[in-house]
Design a protein that fits this description.
Layout lengths: L2 H13 L4 E6 L4 H14 L3 E5 L14 H4 L7 E5 L2 H9 L4 E5 L7 E2 L9 E5 L8 H6 L2 E4 L11 H18 L10 H16 L7 E2 L1
Parallel strand pairs: 1-2, 1-6, 2-3, 3-8, 4-6, 4-7, 5-7
Length: about 210
């Protein structure tokens, strides 16, 4: 490994946010998933959860485009779940709060008024139906991205990017990026990067739970 390559990996490892997680429920479009992966990598998210609660998607093979993800899939752990309760249980071992995008009856929070420096996960739903009723009930709360137009919706990958960059803004202001090299999170991330390189794992394999 060249010194330049090692420096780039160490910088990325120091910026990894172990307690910031993204969940996609029944997202069909592989381009959306790939775009989300790219946004995750850009702000230091290390884990993406694919929750497939729709029985029709249980047998669906998830394909993520190499070009649209720009290689980000290699550096992010991707998990596949079919059971929402199991998925949330695993996430709660890492995060204090799980928030879902939802415009229904429950009073949603304004994204830009939320404290996103705490360990948290964001759930984004299906392109047409949003998150399911089961997942709505499992979330600790719901949020919206304020908009000024007539069409009160964003493409899922865009909504995820906006959300993650608000988390990035808050966390950077709170000095949660650029950790020391000897920090446990930095060491863990660097070991993950090294293992991926040495094993030749390109990130295509999805861990099923």
């Amino acid at each position: 490994m060249t010194p330049k390559r090692k420096h780039l990996l160490m910088r990325a490892a120091a910026n990894r946010q172990k307690d910031l997680i993204v969940v996609l429920e029944n997202v069909h479009d592989p381009h959306n998933i790939s775009a989300v992966l790219r946004s995750c990598d850009s702000v230091g998210v290390s884990e993406l959860y694919l929750l497939l609660t729709d029985p029709a998607m249980h047998i669906k093979k998830i394909q993520m485009g190499k070009r649209s993800s720009a290689g980000a899939r290699k550096w992010i752990k991707v998990y596949r779940y079919h059971d929402a309760k199991t998925c949330f249980q695993d996430i709660r071992s890492k995060c204090d709060h799980i928030y879902g995008t939802f415009l229904g009856e429950k009073e949603p929070k304004d994204l830009f008024k939320m404290n996103l420096t705490n360990p948290c996960a964001f759930v984004f739903g299906n392109e047409q139906k949003g998150i399911s009723k089961e997942v709505q009930d499992l979330c600790d709360g719901h949020f919206i991205i304020p908009q000024a137009g007539l069409v009160q919706s964003l493409n899922i990958s865009v909504a995820c990017a906006v959300t993650l960059y608000e988390a990035y803004r808050q966390r950077r202001n709170a000095s949660m990026y650029a950790r020391p090299k000897d920090h446990p999170f930095t060491k863990e991330a660097m070991q993950f990067f090294t293992d991926r390189i040495e094993s030749g794992d390109n990130g295509r394999n999805i861990e099923k739970r």
